[in-house]
From TrEMBL:
Gene3D superfamilies: Leucine-rich Repeat Variant. This is Uncharacterized protein. The lineage of its organism: Eukaryota, Viridiplantae, Streptophyta, Embryophyta, Tracheophyta. It comes from the Eukaryota.
Length: 377
């Protein structure tokens, strides 16, 4: 019985999406009907009428879709009236223009009604699936569908549905619930990032006031740290300051010491983003966690120093190639959070740390040269 319900639901959604596309064509090119040889518009009319015939029985028995049936019937009547006035007399031309305009308006309205219902289904299924603890595959499916809808851009009606259903709280709860699989939590994290991009004016505040950032860092996966990095890039100083105030800098730097390469790379990207945006206090907090020593070690372990690799064998795709200078240059050259004087002071401090962390004069000279050549401060 449940499988039958799922199949019926899928048929309805497929039909609605097809009707939405047909309505968009009618709205976009209504006056194409004037041209006798416009086969595309005639095909659109035919497709719409076929879909209308299939929809009547389904919509009339579905309480939430009954109003769509009325709109469909109205558009069908207008199309039939349009086809009756094929002459080129003044009366026919005027009647066609008026009817085409009505078809365009109604099709646009009908498309919006369908989208609103599809959005309602998306939010309803997300809430139901996450709150009732469905299996992992079902949870991942609704989260991915939700992200896809968010990626289409801002929509006030969709935002209202999200806020009324308290979707952010559900996603936040998913992040901090220890019994939920990491795969589901990662999808929830990406959905939160999608919400922030969807409307930063509404959802940035919710992120800053919630345990979301701590949960992302605690999750400690490459996906969660990439989400954190994207949030830092999008929200900028307010989020960086929040990370600093909550004492999360040490944990982020420690990701560079883990065995998971993908997490290590995500951690380095996050460090670069913090260096680009952060104030002096943020930079100092990272340096106090032996960041320069860690980066020197990473660079050395990959065999990128002391001439141990020939130019022909050099791996230009290495995530940690010249990582010390990349960090230094991004905050000294492009960094937004430091004054010119602070950049000069930090530069000297980094050069000193490089000398202390290097195992030889050659190593120290190599890294220092990369920093000096790339930095004008």
């Amino acid at each position: 019985m449940m499988e039958e319900d799922k199949a019926q639901k899928q048929r309805i959604l497929t039909l609605l999406k097809a009707l939405k596309e047909a309505s968009r064509d009618l709205h976009s090119n209504p006056f194409s009907f004037i041209f006798k040889n416009n086969t595309h518009f005639k095909d659109t009319i035919e497709a719409f009428l076929n879909l209308q015939a299939k929809s009547v029985a389904i919509f009339n028995t579905h309480p939430n879709l009954r109003h769509l049936s009325d709109s469909l019937s109205t558009i069908k009547t207008l199309i039939e009236n349009l086809q009756k006035f094929k002459g080129f007399g003044l009366r026919s031309l005027i009647h066609r223009q008026i009817t085409l305009h009505k078809i365009s308006q109604l099709s646009n309205s009908f498309e919006s009604e369908i989208q609103h219902y599809l959005d309602y289904v998306t939010v309803r299924d997300l809430v139901k699936t996450m709150e009732q603890g469905f299996n992992e595959e079902e949870q991942v499916k609704v989260l991915v569908e939700f992200q896809q809808r968010l990626s289409q851009g801002f929509d006030l009606d969709f935002q209202d549905l999200i806020l009324k259903a308290r979707v952010f709280s559900i996603l936040e709860g998913t992040l901090i619930e220890t019994k939920i699989s990491k795969r589901v939590q990662e999808e929830a994290a990406m959905a939160i990032a999608g919400l922030v991009k969807f409307n930063r004016n509404v959802f940035v505040g919710l992120v800053l006031m919630s345990p979301t950032i701590k949960a992302l860092i605690t999750m400690a996966s490459s996906v969660s740290i990439r989400v954190l990095c994207s949030l830092v890039s999008f929200v900028r100083s307010p989020l960086v300051d929040e990370i600093l105030c909550n004492g999360e800098i040490p944990r982020i730097v420690r990701f560079l010491c883990c065995n998971d390469l993908s997490l290590k790379v995500a951690g380095f990207d996050c460090v670069l983003e913090l260096g680009y945006i952060g104030r002096r206090e943020v930079i100092e907090a990272m340096l106090e966690e032996d960041l320069i020593k860690i980066l020197v070690d990473l660079q050395r372990r990959e065999g990128l120093l002391n001439g141990r690799m020939d130019d022909d064998d050099f791996d230009f795709d290495s995530p940690f190639a010249s990582c010390v200078s990349r960090f230094a240059i991004i905050l000294l050259e492009a960094g937004e959070g430091l004054t010119s004087e602070e950049k000069r002071e930090v530069k000297l401090k980094i050069l000193k740390m490089v000398m202390e962390a290097s195992q030889s004069d050659v190593e120290a000279a190599t890294i220092s040269a990369e920093i000096l050549w790339g930095s004008s401060h």
